[in-house]
Amino acid sequence: MNDKKIIVALDIGTTKVCTTIGYHDKAGLEIIGVGSHPSHGLKKGAVVNIDKTVKSIHCSIEDAKLMAGIEDVHAATVGIAGNHIYCFNSSGVVAVKGKEITDADVERVLEAAKAVLIPSDREVLHVIPQEFRVDSTAGVKNPIGMCGSRLEAHVHIVTGKTPLIQNIIKCVEAAGIQPNDIILQPIASSRSVLSPEEKELGVVLIDIGGGTTDIAVWKDGSLIHSQIIPVGGNHFTNDLAVALKIPHNEAERIKINHGSVLADNLNQSAHITVHGLNGSKPREVKLGKIAQVLGARAEELFEIIRKQIEEKNLGGMITGGYILTGGGALIRDLSDLGEYLLEKPVKVGYPLAFGGMTTVMQDPKFATVLGLLLESKTDNMGKEVTKTTKQKNSQYEEVDLLGKFSDSLRNVFKEIF
Ligand SMILES: Nc1ncnc2c1ncn2[C@@H]1O[C@H](COP(=O)(O)OP(=O)(O)OP(=O)(O)O)[C@@H](O)[C@H]1O
Ligand SMILES: [Mg+2]
Question: Which sign, positive or negative, has the C-alpha torsion 190, 299, 340, 258?
Fold first, then answer.
């Protein structure tokens, strides 16, 4: 195993902490270990209990190591979400120094684009180039080598609250892992679920997790908007628990096994048996009632998303519609309801195929961790850190978000103000 460049990804979610271990070989990405452990230390994507979070991270890493047959992992690419995340678009302009645009010019224009005032308790997680303009030519993806005198950059900037980012880092380090990179979760999920064609056409990725719903809007191959909404699958479960007066774990079971968000699609008179609180007698509940409760929450979530898209004036750009992923995307009939409410195509997005463990991992709840793995550099097992290589499936081959630039530029894009 030591001659392989091991990569490790860590998705610290509200309901589960998931570790994947893999490596890149000539054929592409091969997954060799997965560990998923219930998460008890997070609320709405943010750490609220360090000890519990560290324990979950530790357990998930141990399980993944055991499956992979690896004794030690040292570093990982880590996901981040939470409603402290704030993203916005920015731009900058510089005069080109020589005849042709160089790395240094791009570096300067990105510096100019990120020179915006952000509150002192925030830091920048990503500066992602959307497009460059060289003189009057717009839509340039890589300006290096082009001739021109004026270079403009449009970028998407992702910021988070420093203490909350530090809490994630602290937990990862306390579990004995060095965070190589911190990546916004919907960017990671987009990486594993969306094809380059979809990103080009214009789509909204909606990752419905346990505590948050993470949005990433793509157009012309670039990320144009991202947002974390503090509503997730757990809210559906809680609604059901309250409405039916049943314990949370019973509500979760019912949601997964019998839940739907469209009462019209069900046999309205069908009943199921539910077990109440404190050993109270089991009773019969109509499937239609369950769908009403879940449907109301789904409507509210889609309404928040619709408003977001409207406020940002993105409606006309998302020709490809909406792609739902994350564990919460599996609630029955969610895409049908979404299509009705959002008036665009809506489908459930599954992670694309990789080598090794494909059948287990092709579940929307693993979208983030797989995307993180695709974005990962190698673990520091005494070897050089290398860039992400391409995916196996040539249909979905692409360089990583920053892959077309030099290492120094990658650092500029990713560095913290
Ligand atoms: N088959 C299913 N049907 C309905 N809901 C499901 C199903 N499987 C999982 N879920 C729901 O998905 C949610 C968990 O999704 P996921 O694992 O993506 O979240 P997470 O990454 O832990 O959380 P977050 O991203 O919000 O921090 C839970 O609310 C769970 O009830
Ligand atoms: Mg998640």
Answer: positive
